């Protein structure tokens, strides 16, 4: 998929664990581990808003478009 999810990188940059992120968001969504590993096929705007709020970042800090990723997967 040409969309790269960089939640793991942001957590590392912020020296935060997935558990800490969940606590800051007051949620235990099963979506977080999927987002963290970059295997999510979709994400709700409300989830993206909550993650950005907890990490003090913009959506563009968490998502990257890489057209070469799609070609490599084929």
Radius of gyration, whole Å: 12 Å
| Major sheet | 2 strands, antiparallel
Shape: globular
The termini sit apart by: 10 Å
Number of helices: 6
Strand content: 5-15%
Topology, number of strands: 2
H/E series: EHHHHHEH
Q: Biggest sheet, strands in spatial order? A: 1-2
Share of helix, binned: 55-70%
| Unreliable runs | none
Given helix and strand content, the structural type is mainly alpha
Mean pLDDT metric: 84
SSE layout and pairings?
Elements: E1 3-5, H1 7-13, H2 18-25, H3 31-37, H4 45-55, H5 59-62, E2 63-65, H6 67-73
Q: What would your notes on this structure say?
A:
The protein has 74 residues and is mainly alpha-helical. It has helices at 7-13, 18-25, 31-37, 45-55, 59-62, 67-73, and strands at 3-5, 63-65. The protein is globular and about 35 Å long. It starts with a strand and ends with a helix.
In short:
This protein is mostly helical and 74 residues long. It contains 6 helices and 2 strands, in the order βαααααβα. The chain is globular.
Tags for this model:
globular; two-stranded antiparallel sheet; mainly alpha; 74 residues; 59% helix; 6 helices
